[in-house]
Write a structure and sequence with these properties.
Blueprint lengths: L5 E6 L6 H10 L4 E3 H11 L1 H11 L12 H8 L3 H25 L4 E5 L14 E6 L2 H12 L3 H10 L3 H7 L2 E4 L6 H10 L2
Helix pairs in contact: 2-5, 3-5, 6-7
């Protein structure tokens, strides 16, 4: 008989190392649902999202080939918290439902979900434990600048739009230190061994 899996939610601020933890989990045979890439897929494939985005943003949000015009969508949301909230209210419920279906069909004892906005999207209700990946702000800043070929101002702006680090810490069940002084491999292995 198939039983529901134990679900780990992996979250943290920009540049904290969520993707590294997700890669380690996959290497340790734990399937990971990446909310960011799945949201991008669903914005292209899901009919209800497509209709709602066209109704909200206009026909131009999809190109002639039916592909999502990310620049158009980003431009629509840029600097407007109400529009960001509106788009999120269209996309997040579909991603959550897709994740729940994925988790139920994973046929594994343990699965994980990676989401930068786990708390903001209400997904902590869908997981058994929240793993926060934590790194010092200056380290996160440098990682994000390098990774995204961005500048300090743009990365700081994105950092400020995320939850405060103390709020992440307060709401997480576990904190993994990704500061260069602690082995992430050891921390992940130890946490999985407790399952």
């Amino acid at each position: 008989m198939h039983t529901a899996p134990y679900i780990i939610g992996v979250t943290g601020g920009i540049g904290s190392g969520k993707s590294v933890v997700s890669r380690l989990l996959r290497l340790m045979d734990v399937p990971v649902y990446d909310c960011d890439s799945e949201a991008k897929r669903l914005m292209c494939e899901n009919a209800s999202i497509r209709k709602a985005l066209i109704r909200t943003v206009g026909d131009r949000v999809y190109d002639a080939m039916g592909r999502l015009d990310r620049a158009c969508l980003a431009s629509y949301m840029f600097g407007n918290a109400e529009r960001v909230a509106l788009i999120n209210s269209i996309v997040h419920p579909v991603v959550r439902a897709d994740f729940r279906a994925w988790a139920q069909h994973a046929d594994r004892a343990v699965v994980a979900v990676e989401s930068a906005i786990l708390f903001e999207a209400g997904m902590e209700a869908d997981v058994d434990a929240v793993w926060l990946v934590h790194a010092p702000e200056d380290m996160r800043l440098q990682r994000a600048i390098k990774r995204d070929a961005s500048n300090e101002k743009a990365v700081r702006s994105r950092m400020q739009s995320q939850l405060d680090e103390q709020e992440y810490m307060r709401r997480a069940d576990v904190v993994l230190q990704n500061d260069g002084n602690h082995s992430l491999i050891s921390q992940v292995r130890e946490l999985l061994s407790q399952r």
